[in-house]
Amino acid sequence: MKFPSLKAFLIALLVGLMPAMASQGGNDTFGYMWTTSLVSPKTDFNWVDIKDGNALFFGAIDNQVSTTIALPFTFYFYGKPHNQIYVSANGWVSFQDPGTTTDPQPDNLTLPNALAQDSMMAVYWDDLSGTSSELANVYVKTLGTAPYRQYVIQWDLPNITNFIEFQVILYETTNLFKFQYGKIDLSTDPGASATIGLQATSTEALQYAANTAFSVDSYFAILWSGKRVNGTDASITPTSGDVNSTVKFTYTFNNINPLGTDLMGKLDRFSIATPFVADPVVSSIKINSGVAAIQNSTAAPTDRGYATWSMVADSLVIQTATMETIDSLVVTFYQDLPSSVSTGNAYVSSVDAVLDSSSIQLANDAGWSVNVTGATEPVDYYEFSPS
Question: How many domains does the chain have?
């Protein structure tokens, strides 16, 4: 009988332990947090191979830094707008010009660190290398259509005995971003000499891992987003309707207040309790003032620019793609009103981001009640008596 090597056994053991690791974390002062694809609550791993994109380097891969690359859209990182990016062959990108085309710090460091690049995403910061015969390179490509484009940067080091591929995806409008790890040679103890995280300045950073073996795995993702929401207003118009009528209502969520990440996507699930027996029928949904394609479904959409609606018990539930709603969501629906007069019928609502660290929150009442009024009977004729 042939027994596996001790190292192979330890690799299998450590990889098997990955699901026991935390799936979420992060507490930097700006408000970023991370969510992995390990266990629920989790983000999705959805590898987008862009080796047909633009190659950044020529020849062997070893400590190069790209020249200025223009971004196809403005991207906000730590609250600041950026229209260009710099890419290192050693697994990091920066929105700040490093002033050189040779990596000044090829060996990884823990974050924050004065020797590390500011405005940096360390996707897999390590002293990486690859030969031209291995077709090693870094690629960039823009996917999708505005306002929901994706800018992808992919490192591909296909060394037969030490292979790794990973990428970062920047999401237009929501300013979320995701690190993804494709095929990795597990015999290299992935992450053992790498840093994964963010650095705004030498004093502000959020580190996922540094010099930690098996901190990443094949087919693994880390989504970076805002940490929590701290208040949302909700209102309805019109605020009255006649008995036995069908009324077109517009329900608005706005003034979505985060703790810091004003320009990032924040919410993706909205629940509106209906005070009447008849179920409403949704006719349109606007996300951040843009009209969404809608479907009557209990499943949350995965593509941006889409929304689903459904009745769950006595509540109308609206769902969008992960943290797609930044500043407002407007729902238009038709509601059959009852036959009796009543006042103060409240459409109480709550909001949530499934992956953030805050729980479901009750929205603030900015005028969400409706009165049912008696219909005015038409006058058929007037009868006058002699004076």
Answer: 2
Q: Is the confidence at residue 381, as pLDDT, over 70?
A: no
- Domain hosting residue 315, numbered range: 233-373
- Residues 243 and 245: their CA atoms lie apart, in Å, by 5
Q: Which of 226, 257, 291 finishes a domain?
A: 226
Is the Cβ–Cβ distance between 151 and 71 less than 8 Å? yes
- Whether residue 384 is contained in a domain is answered as no
Same domain, 185 and 260: no
Q: Assign 12 to helix, strand or coil.
A: helix
**Does residue 250 sit in the same domain as residue 155?**
no
Q: What is the pLDDT of residues 151-176, one digit of tens each?
A: 999 999 987 567 899 999 999 999 99
- Compute CA distances 49 → 135, 154, 224, 350, whole Å: 15, 8, 20, 38
| Residue 107 token pair | 């060996």
Closest CA to 333 of 270, 273, 285, 277: 285
Residue where a domain stops, chosen among 190, 205, 226: 226
Q: Where are the beta strands (DSSP E) in 158-213?
A: 164-171, 177-184, 195-201, 204-210
pLDDT above 90: residue 93: yes
DSSP-assigned letters across all residues of 95-136: SS--S-SB-S--S---SS-TTSPSSEEEEEES--EE-GGGT-
Tokens of 169: 């995806």
Query: Which strands sit side by side in the sheet containing 369-373, from one edge to the other?
Result: 240-242, 369-373, 342-346
Mean pLDDT of the chain: 90
CATH code of the domain covering residue 253 = 2.60.40.740
Is residue 324 located within the same domain as residue 217? no
N-to-C CA span, the chain: 120
Asked if 250 and 202 sit in the same domain, the reply is: no
